[in-house]
# Entry
Amino acid sequence: MQFSRFKIFWIFFVCILGIMFALPNFVSTNKLPSFLNHRFNLGLELQGGSYLQLFVDLESAYQEEMQALIPDIKKQLRKDKITLSEIKSTGNEITLKTEQFDELKKSVAVFNLTAVQDKNKIHLLQDPAKKEERNAKKVDQCIEVVKRRIDESGTKEPSIYKQGKDRIVVQLAGVQNPEEVKKLLGQTGRLTFKLLKELIPVESKHTISPIYDIVPFKEDPKHLCVLEKEVLLTGDVLEKVKALQGQALPGVVLEMNTIGGRKFSDITLHNINRQLAIVIDGMVVSAPKITQHIPIGVASISGSMTIQDATRLKTILSSGSLPAPLKIIEERTVGPSLGMDAIADGKNAVLLSFAFVSVFMFAAYSLFGLFACVSLLFNLVLTFAALSLLGATLTLPGIAGLALTVGMAVDANVLIYERIKEELRHGLKTMRAIVSGFERSMATILDANLTTLIGAAALFEFGSGSVKGFAVTLMIGIVISMFTALTLTYYQIYLYTLYTKNRKLESLPI
Amino acid sequence: MALLKFNFDWSFNFMRYKTVAFVISAIIFLGTLTVIGVKGINYGVDFKGGYVLETRFDKTPSLQELRHKLEKLNVGQVSIQQIGASNRDLMIKMERDEKSKEENTQQNLDKIKTTLGDGVEYRKIETVGPKAGSELTKMATLAVVFALLGILIYVAIRFDWQYAVSAVLTQLNDCVAILSLFSVFGLDFNESAIIALLTTAGYSMNDTIVIFDRIRENVAKKSKLSMVEIINLSINETLSRTILTVVATLMALFAMYFFGGAVIAEFSLPIIVGILVGTFSSIFVSAPLLLVFGFKKPKSVAVNSNAPKE
# Structure
């Protein structure tokens, strides 16, 4: 049995580094040098907070998009002299009737649509590959908007990421009541300016010509607004949105960019004495009368809202509109008291499982059992250090994984010790038995741990949230247990043999 | 000297019980499938969607009254459970009704909160959509399939294909046995159940590999023995390790079960059962399976039989 200086150096190096990096998690000082200042994060169920899973409703955004294309398609077809007998959007596609299929095919290429003929009808569809690409882009844009909105609402350190193809996960540490955030994300924030034709009572049975849109009116729920279809301005022209505070009526001021200002100037010049409807997400929020030409691009929305509403509206409008509506499909909120209980429970679980296993190991192997306990302790320390360095998130299942690795980590030691005992029984001398015990159990330990590692890796790859947290601690624990058993335990036994060198080593304390 | 003395020269004839073991495994396997077929698995809120609330009441609430009131809301199936030592802490679960619309989530939650009244601290609120649940099923299936596939390939390379197939079949057997626990006792099958299932599978695989490893070694070393004798010898040689490791792991799990709080306890119970099942199956099922798949000692070893390596 020989330990080179180099090897001894490495053992000490790893163990000391482990202690250094594990320690910051348990002291609450900020005076640490920056290279040491790594801590693992606590999962939401441990520190309290809210978890929201949002579903990006790409289908409805897509349907809306197709619907909106119809006027443009009509215009284009008129230009290309193609006569239509019927056009409508049905779900995911636009169906129309025409005799000139070949011409139509060329004509709609501008819109990135493919035409498919089916009996006497023609279906216009988006290329699936392109649709996929556009959807992915939309989800990314949604994440950007969600980030801006949450940042502006003053929530600290939100964690926002994409999950799967059409999911966004928002984690808000410490937030106990996610209502405000939910309201911020519940609105698409699509702003348009349209001209108002008239107001009609909600009960009105008159049929309105389909060239107009009928939209509810926020200031007056008893009436509906009849709007001209043409969109005069959209939220794209906004440069800055301010909340009106300290005024009699809370509201927001919209400042437009140069292009928007020019258009707004034109609109107000040509439509004096008409009402301009400001529509947000299918609801007219305000419909002021144009009393004079406004040469600069500034409009305001006020009335029928509280200060909170105004602040929220400001956040929503200034962060841009969501390219697709979001639906909250999962929500988990953990209060701080439960979190603290969970941490206490987790600590108990880890410490007591360590204590139980230690007592058992000592009972089974006496001094060599204590060596195994020291290795086990370092197994925990190094796992904490690794979690800190990775900036991993410790979840409740993660703590459970930790307690479990305590149990499994002794397996490597048990394997080695049983092997040593076996070699002794076969009549080997103590030193030979130790060396042979370690060497022969190496392959077993490697195979057994690698298979568990493969399972944990699959769990990590396909798992989500807390399952991933569990898999991470398990994987780290397994790798470290191999180091501690094969190196650290070995080194301790080596030191023991050095210490007892002078005496004749007849038997081992095993 | 160690306090626990093991009699290491075990020589049980494990292989004699292989038929019994196979029959027991087959009964568990078929029994579980029947029970699941008849009774189904109690998919928790994680899978079905619904609401989970952990509440702390100011005063001890009447469970019956509460249940009655909540059932009237028609939101979904109500289950109320006391957690921890205090009888003021309740875990209220309401499985989403199939009819209940997804859009009503917020209103439903508000209704539940109003019903519970004032003087309640909400320690945890979860609302889960059924979509998220179906994703979990997919995730779990993928994780299990790929874990088993990975292990199959690894063992086939390091050992032999018979070892790989036997190990994976034993794993499947263990997984099914744990499922029966969930089905028979109607435990919630949720995310932590999946973790428990996979942990057990991993542990049992560990056990199986240790025995296989010894069989592989003995096949190379002791060519005079028959396969049955080699398997028996290998299991006996590793038996003390098997027992010590099981006890050590159970020690850790008991600590988790008794002192780790409700969530960790819920998680550790199936693992405790699973580890016992896994130990049984790696001894009595996995090794005999090798023979079923016709594993024979390689010829090259047989040729060298007159020149033992030791």
